[in-house]
Amino acid sequence: xxxxxxxxxxxAFIAVAFASTIESIRIEELIGIGLFxxxxxxxxxxxxxxxxxxxxPILLALFQCVLxxxxxxxxxxxxxxxxxxxxxxxxxxxxxxxxxLPAIIAMTVGMKLPPIFMPSYEQRFQRAVFNVRAYLKGRxxxxxxxxxxxxxxxxxxxxxxxxxxxxxYLLSLLFYIGxxxxxxxxxxxxxxxxIGGLIVxxxxxxxxxxxxxxxxxxxxxxxxxxxxxxxxxxLKFSLAIVGMFAVILLQSIKAEFRDITWRGIGAxxxxxxxxxxxxxSGRLTELDQFADIKAMFPTINRFNQGMIVxxxxxxxxxxxxxxxxxxxxVSLAATFVPRLLWPDKPMAGGQFNMExxxxxxxxxxxMNISPMGEAYGxxxxxxxxxxxxxxxxxFSLLIVIxxxxxxxxxxxxxxxxxxxxxxxxxxxxxxxxxxxxxKNGLFVAVCYWVFKRMRLNL
Length: 458
What we know:
Blueprint: H1 2-19, H2 27-46, H3 55-75, H4 80-84, H5 93-117, H6 121-135, H7 140-156, H8 164-172, H9 174-184, H10 190-208, H11 211-225, H12 233-261, H13 272-284, H14 297-303, H15 306-315, H16 326-336, H17 351-358, H18 370-408, H19 416-419, H20 430-453
Helix pairs in contact: 1-2, 2-3, 3-5, 5-18, 7-8, 7-9, 7-10, 9-10, 12-13, 15-18, 16-20
């Protein structure tokens, strides 16, 4: 493994050396390229050996907040149309990278500290999977039951509103957990349940047009499913390349798919499935557009979370004061106080933070400032960087605590994809990350309690 890390470091160094020949490329961009390549290669290599959940937000932060902004700075930032549409980076590269790169590095250090100081960190996950398989021997029907319980709410998710909507959403996630229970059990038909479950998840994603949930669930679940298995590196890297291309492909058709299926723009007689596969086949027959930087701008823009953070850095403190921790503490309070006792507590989703920190009032679109943007909006450059270190350390220690619980209740590790589904994303805010983890954690606890009452120990 040490040799692999050395090789990945060498590959990252070669990539940086090659990128340094690009005219006017910045040192921060070169560091971002090197870090992204190294972390990505090490993450892929770790599949099957450990469960590196927190490598996902690190990679997303480097990609969406360093690499994509670099593409915009070098190719689009002075374009009059891009500026008119407010898709430019707004602040100078000196200002932006002076905060963003150290903030991501600080978050990474916080997330990596416990694994560095815990020699048995990887073995904990492998031991957990071994214990899960032993526990689920003869309990294969548990997975089938969870799949059935989760399938029904999936049908009604779009027909409920208000606070009950999130409860129905959580219940629908039991389908994913059921698939994992079936996979790790000794049920004779477990492979067919797994295949059928994956098909249902994919079809539901097309029906709802919600591909983000599909990508995150698949990433967390597949990484868990492969834990403890010996896989050749050639296969792991091949699957990773296919997966990354699939994500880019999905992102490139997402807006057009939603225009057709949600808004009826250019809609014909085709079903949603037909629309999806027609768009995919259309992209695959025109692969040359993926090499055309101008044609790829809509996709680059959707990946570019740094664009929003740039708006925050331009707005604060010039037009609005630093929040001095106000929204952080409000987020913590809102996580634990129910809306029944606090009717006007802030809503997750980005509307408040976008207006408070970026000066934009958003309606009908999903947009948020990210934890990095909120850290800057509260504490400025130096305080924001330190906060991101604490933010990364918090989630890392959270996993350590949960793994201690896994020793007592092995199947808890199968619920990690639900627990961390929204917390590992960086397109949200701190309220969303904390709120979803706490609510999802309470939901998991309730599920264990209810099933125990039914004499079905999860």
